[in-house]
Amino acid sequence: MPALFNPANLFGQPDRLARARPPILLVIGAHREELSFGEVVAEHLDRQRIGLLRIPVGLSGQRPGPDGLERYRQRHAELYRQILEHVQPGQRVLIDLHTGFDERQCSADVLCGEPALLRCIERKAAAEGRGSGGLGDMRPVRLIAADVETPPRSADARQTDAWPCVRPELPESVWKGAGLLYIGIEVYLAEPSAGTTAGTPAEARFAAAVIDAVGECALTVQTARSRQG
Fold first, then answer.
1. Which of 50, 25, 22, 38 is nearest to 193 (CA)?
2. Which residues of 42-62 are buried (b: 16+ CB within 10 A; e: fewer)?
3. Residues whose CB is less than 8 angstroms from the CB of residue 14 and which lie 6 or more positions away in sequence, other chains included
4. Which residues are CB-contacts of 166 (< 8 A; sequence separation ≥ 6)?
5. Is the pLDDT reported for residue 127 higher than 80?
6. Rounded to two decimals, what is the model's pTM?
7. Cα Rg for the chain, rounded, in angstroms?
8. Residue 214: Cβ within 10 Å count
9. Residues 96, 184: contact at Cβ < 8 Å?
10. What are the C-alpha distances in Å from 71 to residues 3, 67, 210?
11. Distance (Å, rounded) from C-alpha 71 to C-alpha 228?
12. CA 172, 116, 17: angle at the middle one, nearest 5?
């Protein structure tokens, strides 16, 4: 399939810290309506630890009707293949930031195919406790392949692996790669994202805190993986 995007225009200028190769790469703007929020969130992050891949002309997060859905899925998959090409040696974690809408509270879903990462997130959320904008409002969600049966939810309250499961519309090379840990984060805002919407300062701080916590868990998991390998 020919390239659907011009990488020079799609990804903008290279991150000025690219040579430092931070171990974590944060992607913002894969859905163009969410770019403004991502830019504000990035201002709160340690850029020595978290590199930034900004996509100024990403796809719309609004799905088309049935006639255009297959084409949209193809473009979506191609976008993420190109994102994967921008991961530099030494970058072990790819965090993909998105937004959702929930007028009741600021919260976040953390989506990953690695159970060890989800268990770490669950422990952090439990340690924080529930509260307005607290990290206790992180929810682990497990990514599974389309041909995998959804694991049953356990009736045992102590069972930590009974998370909600979703089948991502991403190439498996992105979310299931052996050397790179993919994590999707969806932060729920009180107002829907729309082009120039950047969320509230509290929402941006919450998102940055979630990214920091997820990044810490991810590096711990990747270090354990390398030791086992």
1. 38
2. beebeeeebbbbbbeebbebe
3. none
4. 111, 141, 142, 143, 144
5. yes
6. 0.85
7. 17
8. 25
9. yes
10. 14, 8, 33
11. 41
12. 70
> CA 113, CA 99: separation in Å to the nearest integer?
20
Cα(13)–Cα(55) distance, integer angstroms: 10
Distance CA 195, CA 35 (A): 7
Looking at the DSSP assignment, which residues form a beta bridge with residue 51?
Answer: 25
Give the list of residues 6+ apart from residue 153 with CB closer than 8 angstroms, or none. Answer: 162
pLDDT of residue 101: 86
Cα gap 161→154, rounded to integer Å: 8
Quick one: 206 exposed, middle or buried, by C-beta within 10 A (0-12, 13-18, 19+)? buried
**Residues whose CB falls within 8 Å of the CB of residue 72, separated by 6 or more in sequence, listed in order:** 59, 63, 64
* DSSP string for the chain: ---SS-HHHHS-SPPTTGGG--SEEEEE-SBGGGHHHHHHHHTTS-TTTEEEEE-TT-B-SS---HHHHHHHHHHHHHHHHHHHHTPPTT--EEEEEEEEE-TT--EEEEEES-HHHHHHHHHHHHHH-S-TT-GGGEEEEEE--TTSPPPPPPS-TT-TT---EE--SS-HHHHS-SS-EEEEEEEEESS---SS----HHHHHHHHHHHHHHHHHHHHHHHHHHHH-
Which residue in the block uniquely carries the two structure tokens 């422990």? 123
Which residue type, as a one-letter code, is found at position 140?
P
**pLDDT digit string, tens, across residues 84-100:** 999 998 899 999 999 98
